[in-house]
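Hey, I'm writing a tutorial for new members on how sequence and structure tokens pair up, and I'd like a real worked example in the thread rather than a made-up one. If someone can provide the structure for the chain below, I'll link this post from the tutorial.
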Amino acid sequence: MRTRKRNESRPPDHDEVVPLSPPVYHVLLALGKDTKHGYGMMQALEQLTDGREQLLPGTLYATISRMVDAGLIEETDPPDPSADARRRYYRTTPLGHEVAATESGRMRLLLDVAKRQGMQPERIR
């Protein structure tokens, strides 16, 4: 994913962000339509994948910074007034939803090709 500086006024084109790196795609999947802090994203991805995928803190926080710069996610207020105000909360932007859907379609196409080529795993690790 190429990033843009925060002060640029134009949103990035799809070609600037797709294909997504695994950590970027994982963050978008973990957030979905929710608002979460970093640790919440780590927990959500692990739960959604039954522990098969993880976001590690060093990778996660660098990825979040690049994603904010690229306009894929944005910092927002906590979803609950009683939430820990020291945490930073994020949500997916419309562009983030759009590129996640594009990436999902790209991956589905590749999976279809893998199936036709006899390269589909019998089970996922």
